[in-house]
Amino acid sequence: MIRTLAIAAIVFAAAPASAVPGGKLGTLEAGSYACELPGDAAGPAGIRQPDEAFEIVNANTYRTAAGRGTYLLTGETVTMTSGPKKGTRYHRISGRFLRMIGPDGKDSALRCVRRVVNNG
After folding, report:
1. What SS3 class is residue 74?
2. 16 domain residue, yes or no
3. For 8-37, what is each residue's pLDDT tens digit?
4. Three-state SS for 62?
5. Would you say 84 and 63 are in contact if contact means Cβ atoms under 8 Å apart?
6. Mean pLDDT of 33-53
7. What gap in Å lies between CA 46 and CA 58, rounded to an integer?
8. At residue 74, what are phi and psi to the nearest 5 degrees?
9. How many separate domains does the chain show?
10. Which residues belong to the signal peptide in this entry (predicted)?
């Protein structure tokens, strides 16, 4: 009986995990994300929105000037689950580019890009 239970436990542990509603779980690249609204041809390409900026600290934690919180990435949707940005959602366009999801569930104009040496 114990041997049967041990074999069953090994089989279940080796089986692939069930799909998570909303898609595969993931993490964002650590670093600072600068957020901006689009500019126009007569001025800068983007208009910084410093109050929307955040930093990914580790696999599930972010930080803003107002405090820390957690996030969840499922499929291509990032949801801030606690902290000052709780309830805010983003559509992950690429590994370093997010677009805020508006109240209507569609991508808004606000974009957040992971800062690197040449865009900081």
Report:
1. strand
2. no
3. 455 445 544 555 577 899 999 999 999 999
4. strand
5. no
6. 93
7. 27
8. -125, 120
9. 1
10. 1-19
